Amino acid sequence: MKLKHPLLVALLVLASAGAQAAGMATHAAMADFGRDALDDGPLKAILTAHRPALLAGAIHPDGGYGSGAAFPEDREMAERAHWGDFSIQFMAYLRESGCSGEVKAALVKRPAIGLIDLAALSDRCGHLIAYAFGNAAHGLTDETWDAQFEPEVRRRGEDPNPAVFLAQLPLSLPGPLKDALTQLFAATPMNAIEYAMDMVNIAERKLVLDAPTLVFPPSSELVAVFARNRPEQGVTVAMVERAQVVSRAAVQAESLAALVEQVRVRRQMPWAAANYYTAPGGVVQSGYAVAGMYRQLWDLLTGDPAQPLAPTVVGSYPGHGALDVQLDPAHDGWTQHRWLHVFFSTSMDAASLEQPGAICLFDPDGRRVAGVVEPGSWSRDYAHTVKFRLAEALKPNARYTAVVTPKVKDYRGLALEWPYSFSFTTARSSAP
């Protein structure tokens, strides 16, 4: 019998892709929102004209996780593509390979109105630039999404494993069968929150993710970027192309699965399905953070190296003015990961973030709240995130103010130009 059920087809493809090769539509949506949030100008024009390459870049880092199931070296390639050092070297490669010069020449043709003559920019450079920006968006949104949205989903007890949905149906599953199904789904991306939200996003937002329209730049050029960043990895054309094949297959599988999976996800994860777009760490907030990072990358690509753009804060958790905030000094895996977070436009110097007085939290009386600063999300190096882990409980229904001072510096030693502050009000009850 031929296998035609969309859910089963998607399961087979995604299972072969590995547990982390999901979230394609979510990452693409965030990268695309960042493009749309930019002011009209040359950068937005380039990313819009080469949007298929932007979307391809946004899904690129996870492809190697999938091919890594058969080729372990692909996993390390995928991991390194997530981090800021890869994006920084990508910008350097674009400058040295002539794309920066092309952009500047195209800008000169329309200086009066601040636009770019896209006809003067080659498809090669247009694709590479858009792809590089999409790839960078993926890395940043992994940090914003994982730090805020996913912990909240888990705190609310919503589980993406399809076995949970099967157990809710009016049928009785034998214990051993239920356990076997739970373990089966747990080994696939169908057990991932990103995958579950992809199902809703694809069905709801109709983001163009038709795999044949995605534009990947020449593999040899991506190999050159990896070689600039981490030559010891020995990334090859074959490794890059395997990851791209998996990316296209995963996109196709997710698009097919969404036809039926969005019904299950909405019923099984009602809060997440209703809030993945606007909740902290969701598409909107992450997209605005991406726009801030895009401006920083644009300066790396086209700005004057003698007058570099200083880093900026592009987001925080809680957001400024947030109400009914629940923060807890306890930490138990994902479920209580409820600390302050600050997100920056570029990779930050971890030691500068840890300086006394670099990041402070004040109570309503102006007293410093005790806490520990922890740079990065998964890694201290080349991360855009800093966490402030509380060492004491906060008062209920009280207004707190966090301050990020110019003591913090980016990987180049550039400090914030001015302090950044945000305030929030805690919940009336400390109950989770």
UniProtKB/TrEMBL annotation:
Signal peptide: 1-21
InterPro entries membership: Cu-Rt/internalin_Ig-like (IPR014755), SbsA_Ig (IPR032812)
Assigned keywords, A-Z: Signal
Domain SbsA Ig-like: 310-426
Gene3D superfamilies membership: 2.60.40.1220
Record's keyword annotation contains Signal: yes
Domain of life per record: Bacteria
Record-given protein name: SbsA Ig-like domain-containing protein
